[in-house]
Amino acid sequence: MRIAYYPGCLAQESAKELDMATRYVCRALGIELVEFPNFSCCGSGFIDEANEALNVAINARNLAIAEKAGLDLLTICSTCQGMLNLARVRMQDPSMKARVDAALKPLGIEYKGTTQVKHLLRVLTEDIGLDAVKAKVRRPLNGMKVGAFYGCHLLRPSDEMQSESGEEPRSFEDLLSAVGATPVDYRGRVMCCGFPILFVKPSTANTIAGRQILDAQAHGADAMATPCPLCHTSLDAYQNKAARAVESPLQMPVFHLPQVVALAFGASPEEIGLSRHLVRTDAAIAKIRPVART
Amino acid sequence: MSDDTIAVPFDIYRFLPGKDQIPRYQRYTLQLVPHTPVLTGLLQIRSELDPTLGLRYSCRSAICGSCAMQINSKSRLACETQVGPEVERHGRIVVEPMRNQPVLRDLVVDQSPFWREYQKVEPHLKLDPRRPMPEGKPTPMTPAEVDRFKETPRCIACAACYSACPAAEADPGFPGPMALAKLYRFVVDPRDTAHQERLLRIQPNGLWTCLRCHLCTEACPKDVRPSERIRDLKEMAIAVQGATELGSKHAYGFKENLKGAGQINEMKLVRATFGLSGMFGQVGQGIRVWRKKPEIMKKPRKIEGMDELDKIYAALDPPPKEDTP
After folding, report:
1. What residue spans define the domains of chain B?
2. Which among A227, B268, B279, B299 is placed 20 to 30 Å from A218, CA to CA?
3. B-contacting residues in A 110-139 (Cβ below 8 Å)
4. ipTM of the complex model
5. Same fold, B6-108 and B112-132+140-241
6. Fold of B6-108
7. Which residues numbered 218-247 in A keep a CB inside 8 Å of some CB on B?
8. Is the CATH number 2.70.40.10 carried by domain B112-132+140-241?
């Protein structure tokens, strides 16, 4: 399949390992990533708070780029997914569409609304399918217990995001099972990581992140995995602060979603940038046991 | 849905503070048709199996908002949540009291934190004493004025949103979704004369603690969509007052940040939020992250078609007009 690749800012900058792992997984599965150097940032939810119409217009422009090429759009970040999809929903409101069109049309940009915005999780579980994913597994993650952490904007508001469920999704756990890992069921998996207020109200944000990590830990997770680099920042890069906020030592490896899949496909830690994580991931990888043959 | 009964295992949170050391979960299994409301099950347990079960309810019709509780970890009204789908999804029904409010007994919570925050937003019309509303006469509104309320008048104050809110959980000073949705309702009321004052007061008092996780919107039984109205309040607060808080500075700074390259410049954003001096507080963590991820110091690549983005900004985000004296 061919799809427009929207990496988002972080995967091109401080979360490069997410881009590396995405490319690894897509190469293995024959997903052709079509790149567009004119995509802009999605606004990350912050521009939406400052100026809704501007946020919609910026993302309608992004969508129109993929639309013109006749492609659906692949995101690898829950927040990018949320913001691009939100623009699609807001553009269904005639007064918003009129305002945004008035800004886009003089630039020769036409937004029609024909492009679907798909997160990698959905592409893997629905378009490619779990059987095809399973077929590429060379090293099943047998024995590794992983707590999926979805990220709010992938799921909610569930009506606008057209997500599988706002509070009880299953697809990430299904994907983890497909690559041989054992998914861990815990309440925190659909909760917030605290990122939106990480700089604004750090103590609250760190407490929220810490509680989700503790919850995963209490349910036996060897690692967490997230489809969102913002969640990854909160849970991995700021885990030391989260630990201080919840007054517990934390040492929870946190993978990006495609890293987990790539590991099972046989990728080396270097190929998917695991050394770039703040919390070491080797303890979780050491849990992987060869599948017993009967 | 079928009228055949199914076995419904309820695991109910039981706790009487002062008497019980720790909460426990008690299992009761009933035979019910799948479309039975959870509340009906709980009332059957209380009348047939255990008269000591504490719960709060009244209308049984999703109007009074009394029976909000956690059903398989979701904050819901027990009267409108059916047992069938819950059993199908989870194999059982775990019933717990709402979160973020102290438990009084079993499923009954002390709602004072919720109501305290509600009172703080002064949920009543503030009128100009020089222009009292005409006695005994209605004050008509145009359809456009009514539309601005969005779904907020539907709120039944059940507190499901407050129970679901992770910001309220981690920060007891956060007003919570319902109080903020209520505030919105008065800010857009054409009869109210304290719009600006209300916005000025909320900006430094919790508005920017909202995580926009949308768990409140998911939990709300009346589709009030508090998270979306909180977003509206944020934009209105910046419009009235400018960016005065760390939260609004961050949002405003993010918007300005894209103007250079079309992609986020992480260092520039930290500076816009905290100011040059405030950046020092971020240095320690910054160095820790930079060692593994040196890109946080790099300028982002400038996107192609930046001129298009500039023109979109010019059209939809013009610089604020100078006040004419």
Report:
1. 6-108, 112-132+140-241, 246-316
2. A227
3. none
4. 0.95
5. no
6. Ubiquitin-like (UB roll) (3.10.20)
7. 237-238, 240-241
8. no
Q: Which two tokens stand for residue A290?
A: 């060869």
CB contact under 8 A, A167 and B73: yes
Residue type, A81: Q
As a whole number of angstroms, the distance between CA A251 and CA A279 comes to 7
Strand order in the sheet with B93-96: B24-32, B6-14, B93-96, B68-71, B74-77
pLDDT of chain A, 294 residues: tens digit per residue: 999 999 999 999 999 999 999 999 999 999 999 999 999 999 999 999 999 999 999 999 999 999 999 999 999 999 999 999 999 999 999 999 999 999 999 999 999 999 999 999 999 999 999 999 999 999 999 999 999 999 999 999 999 998 999 999 999 999 999 999 999 999 999 999 999 999 889 999 999 999 999 999 999 999 999 999 999 999 999 999 999 999 999 999 999 999 999 999 999 999 999 999 999 999 999 999 987 765
Task: Say if pTM beats, i.e. exceeds, 0.80.
Answer: yes
How many Cβ pairs within 8 Å bridge chains A and B?
195
What are the E-state strand segments in A158-197? Answer: 182-183
Beta-carbon neighbour count of residue A112 at 10 Å?
10
Q: Cα dihedral angle (A73, A78, A81, A82), rounded to 10 degrees?
A: 170
Classify B2 as helix, strand or coil: coil
